[in-house]
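User: My instructor asked us to take a sequence, write out its structure as tokens, and then describe one feature of it. I'm not sure where to start. Here is the sequence I was given:
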Amino acid sequence: MTTDTTTTPATATKSAASTIVPLPLAAARALTLLGGIATLVSTFLAWTWTDEFPGDLTVYAYPGGLQWMTFIAGALVTLYALESYGVPGLKWLNPGRSNAPLTLTALGAFGVTWFTVLAIAITLNGLVNLEPGAYVAAVASALPLLGVLALPQDRSEGQTDKEAFLARIGKPDRIAPAAPLNGWLERGVITLAAIAGLFIFTYGIDTPSDEGETFIGYLIVVVFAAWALHSAGLLDRLSRLAADNRAFTLAMGFVAAIAFPFTQSDDHYANLGVNILIFGTVALGLNIVVGLAGLLDLGYVAFLGVGAYTAALVSGSEFSRFSGVQFPFWAAALTGAAASLVFGVLIGAPTLRLRGDYLAIVTLGFGEIFRIAVNNMDGVSGPNITGGPNGISSIPDLSFFGFNFGESHDIVGFTLGRFANYYLLMVFIMAIVVLVYTRASDSRIGRSWIAIREDETAATAMGINGFRVKLIAFALGASLAGLAGTVSAHVTYSVVPTPYQFAGSTPPNSAFLLAAVVLGGMGTVSGPILGAALLYLIPEKLTFLQNKSLLVFGIALVLLMRFRPEGIIANRRQQLEFHETGQLDVPTTELGTDTSLSKAGA
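Assistant: Let's start with the prediction itself. The structure tokens for your sequence are:
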């Protein structure tokens, strides 16, 4: 039997290029460039007459506070506008050769500038508090936006206005591959990227908690700048360089992490850093369970609590049930990880035969049972083990070979405080956890987890022992959470039952950890760490939201799931699953009229 196969053309018929604002091309480009330069210049003017607004925007000839965010956004607009003119030396900024990066940087400049102007007017109660420089900045930031909307954009027949706008800010389907670089240049690019990442993170974490407006402006610029680099294709090229130099990239990442406390003069920010690493480590352990094995665990924070309570009991605290017992940290860390592993096996063995919602309900019940149990083990409602609601306090600081983590130390001219010491310890533990995660995910058992996640029935039919594989994921994830909990107990000086619940306005809780994995990107290494950093920093910096923080958090998650369900740092498999690629996977097949059997068919 013969068949005739016809293939639909891969590209849709294009109509004439369309614009949103009717301007000649030359005028649109000139307006974009002049607007970017004007936005830059406006930051050297005073935007308000009083220093009551955060950042002191009253100074001429020097940007301050949110003006620096506008300055950076204006600089990006200017660079991409110059690239659109074909200025030599700037072509590398836009490998995709589209207008999307210029459009997104213009949106970012407009957004941060107008946010600042409106924040000044609202905070200081009136437009009268704006200086002429603020009006100049508002008008200047609108010019690039008008210019990019006047740039022509190819539009397919039958394409809606929404689809056309998304195409205007989207990444091109095909981007020319980068010219090969020698090894030293590739490592140099990765080093520069690590330095830039350290600077961006340091600027955000150093923003004072009472200057929420500055942190919002910082988020606006970072989001639109990252989006622009992604649409330009630069992030894809950087990802390829990182994949080709994986060991060097991981090394530079940890070097940048180690350098962070040396950039801080206030130990409070090192405290934020160590808590981010603790919760990032726990989120990475949960990523094994959720991201790789596909098991929905709603009580995962309990394993963090098991590790913390175990370390507290053997820490030598006078309030511990075993006050005469004081393990060295390495022994306490192994004991906490082992205790969490045992609990993981005990809980997982009878429950992992369940699937989906039923497993989620059981794990949620385990989390609540743990919190209620440690709350009642006070010697009155139950045995005196955990101290009940008061918990275990006065946990002593760690000491390694005479190095007391509770004291300040001078290293190469820099003074490291207590939290900086614990931060460096957590960087070391994070390195171990990342090594375990990557080795496990790339191993045979890791491929089994992925198979179970995609289709457990098919994986079982192929000979994979689903129960054993899931139990290993559950136990390994629990032990990593317990390891982080042993450090958490010493950082906070005490362990109480309150944080170990399903949901709450402050971390840690199971909902926070699950959201960090989903927000950052399931199945990736850096995704959960980034998610934990964002979810910990945003409530810390936006204190003016107070009781509305959960509402804002929920809205943000809904928007993220609508527009980027695979998370900020996407796993390639999930990115293809959630988004149409425009690729012809299956040709259209039509049966021919000749139904006779050929020799091969027979």
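For the description part of your assignment, you could build on this observation: The two ends are 9 Å apart (CA to CA). Try explaining in your own words what that tells you about the chain.
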